[in-house]
Write a structure and sequence with these properties.
The chain is mainly α. It folds into two domains: about 1-65, no CATH class; about 75-210, Alpha Horseshoe (Serine Threonine Protein Phosphatase 5, Tetratricopeptide repeat), CATH 1.25.40. It has ten helices and no strands. Helix 4 runs antiparallel to helix 5 and helix 5 runs antiparallel to helix 6 (about 115-125).
C-alpha cells in the first residue's frame, strides 16, 4: 500500500510535467524541470534498491533456503489431484463439481482448514446456507490466518444479510474488516446492505489466498 501511494504521487507529478512543460515559460518551466530531475533521481534510486533486494533474494536461494517449498509443506493437501480439480472447478464457477472434489480432499485430510473453507464456500454458492455456516464455524475454531478469517466473517455476513438480519450482518462485516482491512469485500457488502442495492460479494479472494 505504501508503494502504491508513492507511485501515485510520482505519476501525478509526471502527468503535470507532460501537460504543462511544452507551453510553460520562465519560473514555471524551471520548476517543472526541477520536478523532472527529482523524479529521475527517485526512479534511479528505486531501481538500484530493487536490484540490491533481488540480489539478496537470489543469494538466499543459492544458499539452499527455499521458503516456497516450506510454505507448500504447510498445506500438503494442495498437492493432491482432488484439490487442484476442486480449485479449478471453483474458478470456473462449477460449484457442484468443486464440492465433490473438496469432499474427497477432506476424506484424505480431515483437518484441512483451507479444504473445509472451499467446501463451505461451495455450499454458500449453492444456497445451502446451513451447511456453509457449519463448515465456516469449524474453520474459525482453528484458523489463525487473518485473511482467511476475514474471508469467512465476510461470507457469514452475507448469509445474515440474505436472511434480512442486517444487525448481525454488520457485526460480521466489521469483524471481517478488522481481521484484514485490505480485503475490499466487507465494506462493499455493508454499503450494499445499507442501500439495498448491489450484489453481495464473497469468496472472490479465496483463490488468491495461497
Amino acid at each position: 500500500m505504501m508503494f502504491q501511494h508513492v507511485f501515485a504521487e510520482m505519476n501525478e507529478m509526471l502527468d503535470e510535467i507532460a501537460r504543462h512543460y511544452p507551453i510553460a515559460q520562465g519560473a514555471h518551466k524551471h520548476e517543472l524541470a526541477r520536478k523532472w530531475h527529482v523524479l529521475r533521481q527517485m526512479s534511479d534510486s528505486m531501481i538500484e534498491e530493487w536490484l540490491n533486494f533481488e540480489e539478496k533474494m537470489g543469494a538466499l536461494r543459492q544458499n539452499g533456503i527455499c521458503l516456497e517449498e516450506k510454505y507448500e509443506l504447510d498445506f500438503p493437501e494442495m498437492s493432491i489431484d482432488a484439490f487442484a480439480k476442486g480449485q479449478g472447478y471453483y474458478k470456473l464457477l462449477m460449484f457442484p463439481q468443486s464440492l465433490v472434489q473438496f469432499k474427497a480432499v477432506l476424506e484424505q485430510y480431515p483437518d484441512s482448514l483451507i479444504g473445509r473453507t472451499y467446501l463451505a464456500m461451495c455450499h454458500l454458492h449453492l444456497e445451502e446456507n446451513e451447511e456453509a455456516v457449519h463448515y465456516f464455524e469449524e474453520v474459525l475454531k482453528g484458523a489463525t490466518n487473518m485473511r482467511l478469517r476475514s474471508i469467512i466473517y465476510n461470507a457469514l455476513g452475507c448469509i445474515e444479510a440474505k436472511r434480512g438480519a442486517r444487525g448481525k450482518a454488520k457485526e460480521y462485516f466489521a469483524l471481517a474488516y478488522h481481521s484484514d482491512p485490505t480485503l475490499p469485500e466487507p465494506l462493499a457488502n455493508w454499503e450494499a446492505c445499507l442501500q439495498s442495492t448491489g450484489k453481495l460479494q464473497y469468496g472472490i479472494q479465496l483463490t488468491s489466498l495461497l
